């Protein structure tokens, strides 16, 4: 009704806030993060050419090397040098301590 000019409203426009769909609101997909998570979840696919960009493959291999059992699918303590890997996370701007990271 607002668009048709029908009614008396104290505002001029409606701001849509699709809380569950950030992409509908114009946010760019977090491609690197999604690819890294997928690569760490299915490490057997790291050898498939063209499936992941090289930076994703390198980061996934480094993370998996420092996980107990070479898998993120278990409780494990990740030891450095994963701290510096996380510190270089694209656009994070947040420092990372080199203390072990508990993954559960």
Keywords:
Helix Hairpins; two-stranded antiparallel sheet; 28% helix; elongated
Describe the fold and architecture.
This protein is mainly alpha-helical. It has one domain (29-103): Helix Hairpins (Orthogonal Bundle). 28% of the residues lie in helices and 6% in strands. The chain is built from three helices and two strands. The protein has a two-stranded antiparallel sheet with strand order 1-2. Helix 1 (31-41) packs across helix 2 (54-65). The chain is elongated, with a radius of gyration of 21 Å. The relative contact order is 0.10. The model has no long low-confidence stretch (mean pLDDT 75).
Topology of this structure?
Blueprint: H1 31-41, H2 54-65, E1 76-78, H3 82-87, E2 101-103
Antiparallel strand pairs: 1-2
Short description:
This protein has 104 residues and is mostly helical.
